[in-house]
Amino acid sequence: TSGSTGKPKGVEISHLSAMNTILDVNRKMLVNSEDAIAAISSLCFDLSIYDIFGALSAGAKIVIIPDPRDVNTIASIIEEQHVTIWNSVPALLSLFLEQSKSIKNDTVRCVLLSGDWIPLTLPEKAKETFSKARVFSLGGATEASIWSIYYPIDDVRQEWSSIPYGYPLANQQVYVLDFMMQPCPPNVEGELYIGGVGLAKSYYGNEEKTAESFINHPKFGRIYRTGDYGVFRGEGYIEFKGRKDGQVKVRGYRIELTGIESCLLEHPQ
Predict the structure, then answer these.
(1) Which backbone phi and psi does 8 adopt, to 5 degrees?
(2) What share of the chain is helix, strand, coil (3-state, %, to 5)?
(3) pLDDT reported for residue 74
(4) Whether the predicted pLDDT of 45 surpasses 90
(5) Running DSSP on this structure, what letter comes out for residue 105?
(6) Strand ranges (DSSP E) for the chain?
(7) pLDDT tens-place string over residues 48-98
(8) In whole angstroms, what is the distance from residue 180 CA to residue 176 CA?
(9) Rounded CA gap, 199 and 37, in Å?
(10) pTM higher than 0.85
C-alpha cells in the first residue's frame, strides 16, 4: 500500500483474514459455480485478490480482462463468457459506460464498486447497461483485508450528498471515534477505525509504522486507524467524509502526495 517515502509498504495479512472477507462477500452476493467474475484489476491492486480467490473458493469462472481501457474488447468478453460479476473502481466502470452507451447486457447480476468515491449518478447508469444488475458499494483498507464495509445501492435518495459507505462485513467492526478515542454519537463526524478478523498482522518489517497505525483500544481491542473521517447515521450505516491527511486516490490507488514530493526532491534539477 502507499508510502510517504515514495516506497510502498508491505502489508502482512493471514489467509484467515483474507478468506473472511472473501467468503462473506460470496455469501452476500450468492456467488456459486454458475458465476463468472471479470478480473479487471491489476494483480498489483488488492481488488484482484477477490477476483481470483472469490472465484476459486466458489468454483466460479475467472475471466481475464487484458486491458481495462479497451471498452469494445471488454464488452465482447462479457457477452462471450457470460460474465455475471463486475468488480472495479468507479472510474473504470464510468469509462466503460461512457464509451459503450449502445451496449445492453442481461448476464451481469452484481456490480461491485470500491476504492474511491462513487458518483451519485453511476449506479443508475450501470443499471441502464446491465439491466439485471444489483450495485454494491464496498470499502475498507488493504490493512484490513480488502473490504470491511458494504452497502447495497438499490436506490439513490435525492437528499444524499454521497453514496453511504455502509455496514460492517461479517466478523469485522467499523468505529467512528473522537479525538479522545470515544465513540461519536450518531450524526457527529469522527475518525474511522476498523477492528475484527480482517486486520493485518503488521506492516512487514516496519514495527514503528505498525505501532502507529494498529493500536490497542481499552474497550475495542486491536483496531486500525484508517486516516479517514466518517459519520454514523441513525439508520445504522456509516457515511464517508474523506481523508484527514495528504492522501489522494488516483484510479483507485491510494497515493501519498509526500511520496511524489520525495521523488521530485531526489531529481537533480
Answers:
(1) -60, 150
(2) 30, 30, 45
(3) 93
(4) no
(5) B
(6) 11-12, 36-39, 61-64, 85-88, 110-113, 134-139, 149-152, 167-168, 172-177, 189-196, 202-203, 214-217, 221-232, 238-243, 247-250, 253-256
(7) 999 999 999 999 999 999 998 888 899 999 999 999 999 999 999 999 999
(8) 11
(9) 25
(10) yes
